[in-house]
């Protein structure tokens, strides 16, 4: 495992069944089909070593959202399902720090280093990583344990999921986080 402080927290953001809703991929497929496997490997390592894990759950208030509580998409995906005793923090907006108590939970445990995974790279992951960096956390963003979908840019040009993902990572790397891969974190 990369030389991280023992209390480095693993954050798994919004890895719920909702992300498999076909609406997300209407204009193009997702990238990183191995992301859930990589998240599962990171969870296994953190669990084995007794390190802190925080599962961020999106609790959408939007009526048609696949992430709406009570809907079939709200539960965590099997690969990311929390075990009894693991921390689950619900959020209603893209950043896991807004209105959630996450910052207080981390600081109350002396946690200053975060290892971030989940979805969507250019949405909730990016919003959380940017805020974590601004709050002074040392962040490792695990590139191959996150994914996104194709999008059209402002001119209407279709950008693949890999392009969207890579640009989002480039925006964060070096300023808000250090971008790494699963193999680097697991060492």
Total number of helical segments? 5
Q: Measured on Cα atoms, how large is the radius of gyration?
A: 15 Å
Rounded mean pLDDT is: 97
User: Helix share of residues?
Assistant: 25-40%
Question: Approximately how much beta-strand content do the residues carry?
Answer: 15-25%
Q: Could you say which overall geometry the principal axes of the C-alpha atoms support? A: globular
Contiguous uncertain segments of 5+ residues: none
Order of helices and strands: EHEEHEHEEEHEH
Counting helices, strands and paired strands, the structural category is: alpha/beta
Largest sheet: 6 strands, parallel
Number of strands: 8
Cross-sheet strand order for the largest sheet: 3-2-1-4-5-8
CA distance, first residue to last residue: 4 Å
Give an account of the 3D structure.
By secondary structure, the protein is of the alpha/beta class. The protein contains five helices and eight strands. The chain has helices spanning 35-49, 102-108, 121-134, 161-172, 182-186, and strands at 9-13, 53-58, 87-91, 113-119, 138-147, 151-152, 158-159, 178-180. A six-stranded parallel sheet has the order 3-2-1-4-5-8, sandwiched between helices. A two-stranded antiparallel sheet has the order 6-7. β6 and β7 form a beta hairpin. α3 (121-134) runs parallel beside α4. It is globular and about 45 Å long.
């Amino acid at each position: 495992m990369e030389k991280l402080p023992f209390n480095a927290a693993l954050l798994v953001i919004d890895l719920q069944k909702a992300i498999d809703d076909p609406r997300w991929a209407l204009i193009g497929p997702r990238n990183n089909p191995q992301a859930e496997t990589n998240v599962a490997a990171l969870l296994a390592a953190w669990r084995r070593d007794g390190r802190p894990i925080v599962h961020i759950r999106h609790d959408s208030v939007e009526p048609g959202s696949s992430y709406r509580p009570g809907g079939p998409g709200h539960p965590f995906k099997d690969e990311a399902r929390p075990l009894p005793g693991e921390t689950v923090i619900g959020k209603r907006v893209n950043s896991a720090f807004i209105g959630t108590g996450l910052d207080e939970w981390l600081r109350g445990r002396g946690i200053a280093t975060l290892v971030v995974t989940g979805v969507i790279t250019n949405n909730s992951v990016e919003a959380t990583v940017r805020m974590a960096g601004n709050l002074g956390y040392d962040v490792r963003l695990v590139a191959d344990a996150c994914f996104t979908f194709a999008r059209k840019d402002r001119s209407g040009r279709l950008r693949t999921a890999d392009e969207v993902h890579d640009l989002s990572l480039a925006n964060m790397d070096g300023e808000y986080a250090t971008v790494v891969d699963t193999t680097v974190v697991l060492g």
